[in-house]
């Protein structure tokens, strides 16, 4: 197949950080080239150069033999290159409907006005959504969607452009297996049509399923290239410098005292009632498809909204939190799924740095504002940066300047700054590399003794790795729990109808 895109010697620095050094490779029509690399290896930086977000400091790009340089994403788009970025927080217009967002690019190019929600535009938006098998109420506002749904909207928009080169930066980071498979089916079709795909993922299952060839980046340099049959172990070695296995499941933890107890709880008036008990010392993984109600459960325990029915106890006393603040004061912490909505501040806020982000929930404990708080904050942040292996220059770095996986580590580090009684982690492994996932699981376990920990994950493999026991949810209710793969798969498979 012909070379569609060739890059030669691409180099990019941010201040003293060498994000990308002398990177060269070719991308062919009708192939899926996977880009692998540890957190901070330079993958997203490369993507941003290819699609005109950043200019390169050195190096060149050719499309179909002609040298190009893009001053903007728009120029890249005119050459047929479209990227779906890792941070989708700023994709689309939050206050508009899904339909309007899907049609945004068309209305911008003067074919509008379509934003009236007329029948014709709804049909056009429906066709775009159907292009990737996206089943969603198109009249919902973008900001009412879950992160997985927004990710799918962003992908549908990109595919609708009919690009020659489609770049996907961790598109499945918050998708569960069925949504991922739907996406892969779309990518198969695009590949058959001769589209060149550049695919970034930390999930080895994704790569096994979709990659034709792998290029590995390490510390900003190309450190390996692999062709079919793909040797993923070798690729991982090229990526991190050593072999990485699965974290061993730990020995069963002796039952501590029950910390959280849900009795006859309902997450929605029409959902089934369920019980759940989580003990001190154990790490419980809650899994189930997107839309199964995992985040709804997490939010109810954390005080974001009430249960529809039933009740909760914390340490044997009724637990009816009315706000996140009340939860935090009582030692119930939650690391939210969408880090840009729940954790980070805009860069213009004075305490937007890593230290301020980590210290924010604990200002009450660390002495209101003032010097004491600042010192405690900086000290705690330094310790956590080391503990979680966060690749940053220091506590005063802005989260926005960190790679995606390192941003995620900041979110987890924040809620380990103080001891929790109950720690809720919603999709904690989003975008973290294989090596870092091991480190995070170890860090979670190291502090898990005196608290109860609940980890909410779409990915079954992750659930089995992190959890001492796995609880399965479907249709906004807990439907069972198990510790072995066969039983969990059976719980997930039936008899619950597919959840949209
Ligand atoms: N806008 C920026 N300002 C300063 N440094 C940056 C900026 N963007 C990226 N970097 C730095 O460049 C390096 C490469 O980051 P990049 O985001 O490309 O990594 P990545 O391979 O995509 O990692 P991940 O798997 O975590 O997403 C990191 O050290 C990062 O901190
Ligand atoms: Mg990245």
UniProtKB/TrEMBL annotation:
Source superkingdom: Bacteria
Tagged with keyword Transport: yes
Keyword ATP-binding (UniProt): yes
Pfam families: ABC_tran (PF00005)
Gene3D superfamilies linked: P-loop containing nucleotide triphosphate hydrolases
Keywords assigned by UniProt, alphabetized: ATP-binding, Nucleotide-binding, Repeat, Sugar transport, Transport
Chain ranges of the ABC transporter domain: 5-244, 248-500
MF GO annotations: ATP binding; ATP hydrolysis activity
Stored PANTHER family: CARBOHYDRATE TRANSPORT ATP-BINDING PROTEIN MG119-RELATED, GALACTOFURANOSE TRANSPORTER ATP-BINDING PROTEIN YTFR
Protein name stated in the entry: Monosaccharide ABC transporter ATP-binding protein, CUT2 family
Lineage: Bacteria, Pseudomonadati, Pseudomonadota, Alphaproteobacteria, Hyphomicrobiales
């Amino acid at each position: 197949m012909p070379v569609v895109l060739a890059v030669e010697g691409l180099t990019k620095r941010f201040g003293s950080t060498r994000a990308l050094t002398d990177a060269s490779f070719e991308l062919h029509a009708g192939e899926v080239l996977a880009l692998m690399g540890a957190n901070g290896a330079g993958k997203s930086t490369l993507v941003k150069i290819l699609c005109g977000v950043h200019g390169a400091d050195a190096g060149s790009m050719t499309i179909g033999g002609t040298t190009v340089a893009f001053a903007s994403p728009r120029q890249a788009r005119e050459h047929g290159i479209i990227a779906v970025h890792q941070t989708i927080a700023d994709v689309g217009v939050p206050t508009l409907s899904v339909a309007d967002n899907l049609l945004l690019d068309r209305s911008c190019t003067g074919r509008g006005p379509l934003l009236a929600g007329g029948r014709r535009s709804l049909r056009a938006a429906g066709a775009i959504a159907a292009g990737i098998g996206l089943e969603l109420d198109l009249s919902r506002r973008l900001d009412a969607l879950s992160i997985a749904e927004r990710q799918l909207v962003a992908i549908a928009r990109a595919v609708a452009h009919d690009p020659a080169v489609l770049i996907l930066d961790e598109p499945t980071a918050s998708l569960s297996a069925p949504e991922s498979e739907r996406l892969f089916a779309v990518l198969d079709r695009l590949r058959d049509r001769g589209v060149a795909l550049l695919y970034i993922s930390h999930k080895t299952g994704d790569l096994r399923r979709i990659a034709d060839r792998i290029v590995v980046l390490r510390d900003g340099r190309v450190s390996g290239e692999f062709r079919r049959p793909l040797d993923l172990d070798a690729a991982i070695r090229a990526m991190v410098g050593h072999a990485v296995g699965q974290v061993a499941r730990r020995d069963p933890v002796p039952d501590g005292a029950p910390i959280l107890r849900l009795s006859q709880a309902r997450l929605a008036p029409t959902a089934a009632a369920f019980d759940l008990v989580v003990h001190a010392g154990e790490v419980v993984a809650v899994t189930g498809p997107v839309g199964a109600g995992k985040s709804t459960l997490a939010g109810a325990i954390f005080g974001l909204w009430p249960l529809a029915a039933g009740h909760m106890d914390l340490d044997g006393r009724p637990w009816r939190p009315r706000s996140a603040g009340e939860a935090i004061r009582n030692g119930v912490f939650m690391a939210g799924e969408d880090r840009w909505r729940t954790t980070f501040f805009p860069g213009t806020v004075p305490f937007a740095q890593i230290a301020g982000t980590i210290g924010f929930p604990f200002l009450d404990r660390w002495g209101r504002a003032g010097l004491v708080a600042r010192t405690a904050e900086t000290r705690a942040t330094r310790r956590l940066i080391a503990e979680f292996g966060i690749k940053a220059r220091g506590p005063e770095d802005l989260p926005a300047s960190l790679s995606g996986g390192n941003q995620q580590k900041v979110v987890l580090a924040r809620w380990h700054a103080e001891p929790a009684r109950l720690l809720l982690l919603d999709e904690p492994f989003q975008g973290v590399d294989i090596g870092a996932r091991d480190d995070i699981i170890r860090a979670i376990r190291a502090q898990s003794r005196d608290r109860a920990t609940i980890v909410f994950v779409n990915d079954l493999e992750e659930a089995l790795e992190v959890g001492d026991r796995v609880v399965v949810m479907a249709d906004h209710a807990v439907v069972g729990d198990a510790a072995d793969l066969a039983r969990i798969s059976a719980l997930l498979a039936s008899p619950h109808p597919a959840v949209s």
